[in-house]
Design goal:
binds flavin-adenine dinucleotide; 4-stranded antiparallel sheet; 7-stranded mixed sheet; alpha/beta; Methane Monooxygenase Hydroxylase, Chain G, domain 1; single chain; 3 domains; binds succinic acid
């Protein structure tokens, strides 16, 4: 059996691609654990869109400003020019965004946006509501607990994928087109906001095959993450809170961010994260998110999930401030793709969503542009693949396929070391020597008798460190201390 499409990942990018592929096609979606265990499900703030034709230049300008003009400008154009039509298409298929008192779409503002242009659903549960909608719309086969461990590639053609279905079992599936929508790399860091399913194995496969990973040094740290739990996955306090008036203060209630940037809390995300890191290092004072500008009834209605989560944690919002710290949040870098979403040099392999790097986000992603990227570039990938109608010939592929061991005894300790190394040395502020030492450490881990999944994660971590070492000067999210002469 040959599928028309295999889609790796069931987040917004994968499920929207599936929605746009006709029911008549044979499609297999693969995901780890359950379909809702993905970053999309946890997205709070919303989805950005150019509000109308007139807003496109301004949305483009804001995206480029946040990305420090390192963005691929054509990709930004594709993103913004398609945004409104993609949102309208979702709404006409039944997705409901929140409305204002007049029954019109309620747009909100987040950092580095020059106007309100972010749509949200169920207040602060935008990702969950979009995911639920896309899952309901899904007409194709979805296999859960399927962990992709290899792409079957010969002569620039991907003819299928190999995946673990349990600790010991592997399966092969063949397809005319494969779409990678496997998300970012969050679990490589000790502290992050991401789903546990997001660990960057597919980026590792791409690196192993000698295909291009791009901008891997560009990793984004979200400034306002709740500090008070011991889990690696930290609860996010959405940027929409700051967009609507929440302030970052020290334990003496001083709003120190204006000492770093004229826009204070609404400066680009990399600036805010770095400033918090620096201020805390210098002063050793605790840092908090304060909600004192909010009135309680409004707060509960606008941010019902954050209100309920923090109520369970013992905080009476908006009256109490919450201790925060930056944590890893988003990968701007990823699998290098053309504007048509094809993996560079490949004939029938696509990458979309956070896994991909068209260069659209440049050196720092503008808030709420990621859900948008997922819906726009999934459409681009499906349209392009339908037009090209590439067909593989299975009889060409007769090589024996290698089998893998999923996990080994020593993996757990190395995984923990890996996360600590990445957090300590490849996060908000970087130093060349520490990056080089980390790379050497990763190289030595790669020589150990480790399982396939850890091997792939280490390859991805290696590509982040190498890219960070190669970029000697700070740019956007990549802040490296320059060597003293
Ligand atoms: P994901 O939604 O992460 O899905 C990845 C999928 O790939 C999962 O199904 C996973 O199981 C699967 N997968 C991974 N590896 C494998 C493998 N080896 N084999 C098989 N399957 C695999 N962006 C915004 O624009 N607005 C927001 O408000 C916003 N808020 C956010 C809040 C949080 C807490 C987080 C973590 C992110 C937020 N983001 C937001 C970013 C945004 O949610 C993500 O970038 C986006 O959802 C990524 O979508 P995706 O489809 O590319 O990947
Ligand atoms: C948030 O709600 O702060 C996250 C927004 C984003 O990552 O774009």
């Amino acid at each position: 059996m040959i599928y028309d499409y295999i889609i790796i990942g069931s987040g917004i990018a994968g499920l929207n691609a599936a929605r746009l592929i006709p029911k008549s096609k044979k499609v297999l979606i693969l995901c780890k654990k359950f379909p809702w265990e993905c970053n999309t499900f946890y997205a709070q703030g919303g989805i950005a869109t150019a509000v109308d034709e007139k807003d496109i230049p301004s949305h483009i300008k804001d995206t480029l400003n946040a990305g420090v003009n390192y963005n691929n400008k054509q990709a930004v154009q594709v993103l913004s020019e398609n945004s409104n039509a993609c949102i309208k298409d979702l709404i006409s298929d039944g997705l409901e965004f929140d409305l204002n008192d007049k029954g019109e779409l309620a747009f909100t503002k987040e950092a580095a946006h020059s106007r309100s242009r972010i749509l949200h659903a169920d207040g602060d549960a935008t990702g969950r509501m979009m995911h639920l909608f896309l899952l309901k719309e899904c007409n194709h086969d979805l296999e859960t607990n399927a962990v992709v461990n290899d792409l079957l590639i010969e002569n620039n053609i991907c003819y299928g994928v190999q995946y673990f279905t349990s600790e010991t079992e592997e399966k092969i599936a063949y397809a005319h087109n494969t779409i990678i929508a496997s998300g970012g790399i969050g679990s490589l860091y000790k502290y992050h906001t991401n789903s546990t399913t997001v660990a960057g194995e597919v980026q590792g496969i791409i690196s192993e095959k000698g295909l291009e990973l791009k901008d891997m040094e560009m990793m984004q740290f979200h400034p306002t993450v709740f500090k008070g739990t011991s889990f690696a996955r930290k609860s996010l306090l959405s940027e929409a809170l700051r967009g609507e008036g929440a302030c970052i203060v020290d334990e003496n209630n001083y709003r120190f961010l204006f000492d770093y940037h004229e826009d204070g809390e609404l400066a680009p995300r990399d600036v805010v994260s770095r400033s918090i890191f620096d201020y805390n290092k210098k002063t050793k004072l605790g840092i908090y998110l304060s909600f004192e500008k909010f009135e309680k009834t409004y707060f509960r209605k606008r941010f019902p999930n954050i209100y309920a989560n923090f109520n369970n944690l013992g905080y009476d919002l908006p009256f109490e401030k919450v201790p925060i710290s930056p944590a890893f949040h988003y990968a701007m870098g990823g699998i290098a793709t053309e504007l048509n979403a094809k993996v560079k040099t490949m004939k029938n392999l696509y990458a979309i969503g956070e896994a991909a790097c068209t260069g659209v986000h440049g050196a720092n992603r503008l808030a709420s542009n990621s859900l948008l990227e997922g819906i726009v570039f999934s459409k681009v990938a499906v349209e392009n693949s339908m037009k090209e109608n590439f067909q593989i010939k299975k009889e060409n592929y007769t090589k024996t396929i290698k089998t893998f061991t999923r996990n080994n005894e020593i993996d757990k300790d190395i995984k923990n070391s890996l996360r600590k190394i990445m957090w300590d040395n490849a996060s908000i502020v970087r130093e060349e020597k520490k990056l080089i030492d980390s790379l050497n450490q990763i190289e030595s881990f790669l020589k150990e008798d480790i399982g396939r999944l850890l091997f792939l994660r280490l390859l991805t971590a290696k590509s982040i460190l190498e890219a960070a070492i190669d970029r000697k000067k700070p740019l956007g999210a990549h802040f490296i201390k320059e060597r003293e002469c």
